[in-house]
Amino acid sequence: MSTGTKLLRLTFETLHRSGVAAALRPWSQGLGVIFCMHSVQPEKPSADGFTPNAGLTSTPEFLDAALTMLRQAGYDLISLDDALLRIEEGRSAKPFAVFTLDDGYRDNLVHALPVFEKHSCPFVVYVTPGFVEASTEMWWLALERIIDKETGRLEAGNVSAVLDGSAASKWAAWSVLSPVVQGMPEHEQRTWIRETSARFGFDLAALCQELIMSWNEVRKLAAHPLATIGAHTLNHFAVSRLPEEEARREITVSGKALERELGRPVRHFAYPYGNVAHAGVRDFRLAAEAGYATAVTTRMGTVYPQHVRHLQALPRVMVSSKYAEPRWLKVLASGLPGRMNNLGRKLNVR
Ligand SMILES: [Zn+2]
Fold this sequence. Notes:
The structure is a single chain. Strands 1, 4, 5, 6, 9, 10, 11 and 12 form an eight-stranded parallel β-sheet that branches. The chain starts with a helix and ends in a 9-residue tail after the last helix. By secondary structure, the protein is an alpha/beta fold. The protein has 15 helices and twelve strands. Strand 10 (268-270), helix 13 (281-289) and strand 11 (294-300) form a beta-alpha-beta unit. It is globular. The structure holds zinc ion (ZN). Residues 102-103, 232, 236, 272 line the site of zinc ion.
């Protein structure tokens, strides 16, 4: 475990045990919280512990414990549409918690849905049509798998790494290459992963087909009374890095494609990656112009009545079983970490 992770765990455990987060909750809470998750699946054994994307995965047991704990702590587990009504009213008798899952993983249907059903907890799945149709690249997972399986030299931009099959060389390669690939302009990044995959015979389309729901599965989920389907761009691009017309197309057409496939309105949107570097004020405007009732970021924070004027820049709190204990969700939902992160401010929408 890295020093940073240890420090984070210590901070959350202290905030939880000391009662500080609970004591400050009336000041920091706001109306409620929107949690962001991705894949939900049972713990998979890894031969050498090389799991750099584990922060995007939670176990069904974690989700189960989190929902139990939040309900015991007095949170209303509600749909995003109901949360929107409370934001528009500017009040919530009890704080709300909304669960959202990004990208459209098949395990959301297989492993997360039964847990949400057990707790009668509504949830949102933000789907990227390009993943469903295997026409775009889940580059971060492809990079993980290539590093895990291959040996030899890998280069990106002006950095390189040598893989010798050891866990140490895999982690070293990931730490050098992934920030460079993440930071490339969007189309250059996808060219790089396509060329690298071709070199090693890695099948990018098969990765999408293995992990992401088919249209039939998305339709099955959309028909469930607890589920809401939202849009997540066509190609999972960081929209702020695109020219305006391309960003507008990614934001607008993804919702239209989902509406066509599902035969129902798509009112909600999530910005891929979703932090300050990936979605900004221009993109909030584009999401509003596209007609989305809400759009969520991954800027950490809880929701306040003031967000009524920034419904396309809603904050979320990212959680995964790798980095969080279920009891810490209470700390995260209290709003205190978000307020600390935002230097005491309620809004982080610029
Ligand atoms: Zn995503």
